[in-house]
User: Fold these one by one.
Assistant:
Number 1:
Amino acid sequence: MSTEYAVEPLSSSRFPEAATLLARAFQNDPVIASILPGILPEKRAHKLAVMFEEMLAVNSRWNEPLGIVDGGAVRAAAILHRPGTHPLPLGTEIGLLWRVVRRIGPRGLTRFIRWSLRIGRRHPTTPHYYLETLGVEPALQGRGLGSAMLRKIAAVLDAAGDECVLETANDRNVVLYGRFGFEITREEQILGAHVRFMRRRPVM
């Protein structure tokens, strides 16, 4: 019998834990490796945890980060932007970057800005959701948590009747997202990573 995971909004008290989980999930991601080259994965994870904690806190002003809490711990987390809430206001974005740099230093900042500007140009001009981040505890990947998260997200999208976009440089993720209606619309090399831009249109 498959496990049914409950996907719910994460409370702010869970943000540090969720950020650490996301850092573990993304420490070997091709895009992250290209933004922070020459850094061991465990050291990348430390920097990522700080970045994700700040991202979760800022984005919670407009959106509710989603997650799965199982066995008393956060096992999966996602940042899903509603239409009109991404990109962040310029002042907010600058403040976010400043807090991250102050905590972990400027390494990778220029490459991160290049990445953000590049993907931003590929987003639709019409209202859309943006799945910026979705991560599952590495030791639990392949057990249905990612599917549970995407099932919930798909339900939100269908109820709203809006499309959703995302980017991934992970081959395994392309297959998973495809199961929930996301299709590749463009492929590019960005900072040395092979990035697939994907879009999910609303189910009519």
Note: The mean pLDDT is 94.
Number 2:
Amino acid sequence: MLQDTRTSRVMVGRLLVLILVTICAAGSAFGQGVEAVRAQIPYEFTFASKVLPPGTYTLTVTKFGLQAQSASNGEVYRASIITRLGGPPAMFQGGSLVFDKSGGTRILAEVWMTGADGILLHSTPKGHAHEVVLLSEDFDAKSNLSGKAAYNQTCIRCHGPAGKGDKNADKFFNTTIPRLNSAAVQSKSDAELKELITQGSKAMPPVEIDEAGFRHRLPPQDVDAVIAYVRTLKQ
């Protein structure tokens, strides 16, 4: 009888320890800050072997990987994280989604959230291009941006802080991005620059800005402000 009582006490003690460990582990896991971003993705893309339509998605880092939830139907998709990426590079500091594009297929490969390391979801061999969806959380569509502020939220990641370019961006996009301070760019009329910003070209999509993950083109007044700022960058 005494032996049974001792055994019972030992088992109860072990059970209490197990419960405490479980509670501490859960508290540690759920106490961590949640990494999440909402993004308007303008084209069909592949996520964890599933082809998803264009639309608004909330991307959340969980202990199981990366979760994407569609705003249109509430459907949740999950992908494994290959590894964390150190950084972020200067052009991703505001938050970005990087898609590997081959032919007409786009695969979500990297996710960069403000204040966090990058996340690698997919690695594509050579022979592909990159497309980037920029994310920004501090744009107020109701107020006009100064030319420099608009430039810093849209153009700086590829064209550099003074329009002199960025070698890392050249390497990433596998092309020499035009230097905005160059005579070739500065010789263009305001109308030509406005068309490039609003309509894009074969090498560059129209300039867009994000408000909490929702992409839209620059308002006309901000286009004019950017052009005026670009004029101050001439050599």
Note: Residues 36-134 form one domain.
Number 3:
Amino acid sequence: MNPDASTIAAGAPIEVDLTPIAVGQDIKVFWRGKPIYISHRTKKQIEAAQNVQLASLPDPQPDSARVKAGKDQWLVVVGICTHLGCIPISHEGSYDGFFCPCHGSVYDTSGRIRQGPAPSNLPVPPYTFVSDTKIQIG
């Protein structure tokens, strides 16, 4: 009566080694069938995300609430546009974050909605740092 291995694997946490991700680069992994972007942000991208006037954001959320304390170079977000569920492209758009070409939603380097029809920020999945170079998502 236990679930089969594929069912367990579909919801199981995954570990991701961050070592091969260069500064300014991101990777896409899958967790629970969803694309997860893991971005190794540059100093410029971090500063841009931290220096935004929160009142100007459609879904105000500080960058510090979207990253782990002391690890703000790492952004981990679910790569599904909050408008209609399309997959945005990373390092695109006016804010060097994510751009959804389907309907024009533009997200910044913190995954926050800045322009377009999306109603909210890209979600941050549950994740923890297992070590300095490895995270567990889920």
Note: Helices lie at 5-11, 43-50.
